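## Example record

The block below lists the input lines for one assembly entry, exactly as stored, with component labels intact.
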Amino acid sequence: MNDLELCVWLNGYEGLSADLFRDIDAGLSEKDLLDALLEKKKITPHCSERLRTLCDQHWAEGEIDRADQAGIKLIPWFSEDYPARLRDIDEPPLVLYVKGQLPDLERSCSVVGTRRCTPYGFKVAELLGSALAQADYTVVSGGARGIDGAAHGGSLSGSGCTIAVLGTGVDVIWPPEHDELFANIAREGALVSEFPLGTSGRAWRFPRRNRIIAGVSKMLVVVESPMKGGAMITARKAMEMGRDVWAVPGRIDERVCEGSNRLILDGASPLVNVSDFVEHISGTLGQLELFSPVPLSGDEQKVLDCLASQGDLTLDQISARTGLSPVQLMRITAELQVRTQIYSTGGGRWRAAPR
Amino acid sequence: MAAEIQGVTLRGVEALPVEVEAEITTGMFAFSVVGLPDAAVRESRERVRAALRELDVSIYGRIAVNLAPADLPKEGSLLDLPIAVALAREKKYVSLCAPAIFMGELALDGRVRSVRGAVPAAMLARSLRVPLFCPIGNSSEVALVEGVEAYGVPSLKDLLLHLRGEKLLSRVEKSMPPDGLGAVEPDFADVRGQAQAKRALEIAAAGHHNILLVGSPGSGKTMMARALQGILPPLSDDEFLETLLIRSAVGLPAPVDRRRPFRQLHHTASTVSICGGGSDIRPGEVSLAHRGVLFLDEFTEFRRDLIEALRQPLEDGFITVNRAAGSVTYPSRVLLVLAANPCACGWRGDPVEQCRCGSVELERYRRKFSGPMLDRVDLYVSVPRLTPQELLELGGTGGESSAIIRERVVRARAMQWERKRVTGAECNAELSERQLKNNVSLSTYARKYLSSMAERLRLSGRGLSRVLRVARTISDLAGSRSIEAASVAEALAYRDAGVLE
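Predicted structure tokens for the full assembly:
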């Protein structure tokens, strides 16, 4: 068995990691290896039984064949391509399944948050994704609904490179409405998973993959997260690993921001301005033109100023405050929305996009 | 040979002539009605006998009433009157010199009760060039039909006196309702704020565009949908008769003015009540809303089969109902107004209440916003629920009244009528893809603007057509012959993305 087969084979039993190799000689034959692991209590007897069956069935060889046919690259623990930063974390994955091209992870930033985000959180994540892309940063996230999807989408819209670390096999599309997004990610970046092909989404797998999201980048941004959320697990792990953790401040009366606000209290840096943040981490102070001023007509500027001073306004309220007729406003809001300068928070209310 | 006594029977909105013959021979008393009568027709013998006895015409012997053609099923109580006249003639009480159509249900004391189907019967009488004797209660409907010689009959006695030439009934005078429109409740001036939804409804009325309103409970979706009735242009003479015919077939009274029908569907309604059917092949709600508004409140709660059943009549503008008794085609050109909550619990995006929907629930709910109905919707509008504080801030700015908006709508419709020779479409919503390409007169700058926007927003082909149709209507409202970029920009505000965000 070569290195790749060995890693794929051991990875066939869920929950094992490259920690196995810390004080075991990887060059042993399969039987001896299992015996040695069993003796050192690294694996349970049940696990040993299971691995023995997989070995007899030549499962690892079959899995590698399947991955080959699907155009999925396998990066084992022993490979040079294995992300350097992941080697230092607890329980590093034995093998990474990669669909797409794994970019250089030196310039990468993880963005995570809740699936049930507010329109505000969604907008911030999108903006963050696109700003990071313009600073040539890779956006790493989990491919889930809500914040994750927004961060990936933002990065793609800024024609950047983005990585989704999945809690399923890389060939499984979950959530189903993200099929187009995943196709785009695989083209512009990579879908990554440690789980064997065809692994379905289960509640316990998503927190487990969070250690990869936390470990793979130098920094992590939590956009919106309630107290008990997957993003909080990621943030805690990132702090343990010594990564820079940032959190986007949210309203204190919203439950979906409670966790991310609490992180700031616990020592995470508050992300108060997207362009400042991106310039700070990329060291390109004043060189990037993230939000180049678009020429606005007088009326458009009026509407934008009105919304920037207070958000969540209906068209009637904007009309009352700016003196513009509703018909004019329909036109102006449509135009400003297309230029992503304002966005709808649902129910016919508008906000100015954060800068 | 004596003149024919005719009655009518209804099949859908069509009245079919029925010749009524009676024969009395000596023998034991018996009263039989032949010619496929239904239970209501067969029971007419008791009403007819009692009504005749009231006039001191007593009937004895073997009585046979034949309804011809014999193979056509007859239904309803409206054959009471011709049967009574036929028996009276057989008893030599009256004589008839010219054929005539009689319709009406008899009370035991000889009064004539109103029936449904008077308008189809009047149209039949007009085409056969015979006089119509209808219940006096139906004379207001019959008065709306041009060129028919009709008499309103209060009781059997009056009718027989008329036929004997002793005391003539007065002829029903033709009278169309006035051109104007009475006050429609609620008026748009009563709706506070909601400028966006009001404007969208104005566009919907002007171009006959189907519209979807999305908003939390209490935001005023239903009220505004009802107010739409007041800004639609009044019915023309032809349209008025079309709607009258359908109303008459289900026994609804004639409308007092030319307002367009407004029918609200409930999501528990049966397919038959919506599309029409039953043993007598009545028109359904979708036909009753013909030339008017069909409103589906809580549209996401509608069962799949109801939506599927609505799809064909909405697409074709007519519906064919097939039953054992025959098949009837009803018109069903309606302006569709859909209303829905933004999420399953209804409070997504609300400034006060918290939404309690999970992401899976949201996704499931969102998936309901697709399919045959929404493909036909041109305007998507969010209706924000205002907090009490915001309502106070807006103050008394009710805005324009329905009558003012209606004037603009009528002008915009007139422009569409002018174009009808070229486009063949009665309203902008009916413009086909090809006509949109050729006859929409998009200005050069607007074309450039639209194509750049379409790219940025990744508009589909269908989405692009929607924007063009709506932009055409906005230009019509502004009285402009060509579509300018400003109209396109406004039309983009009503596209489908966004109402569910």
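Residues 5-163 of chain B form a domain with the Ribosomal Protein S5; domain 2 fold (CATH 3.30.230.10). The mean pLDDT of chain B is 88.
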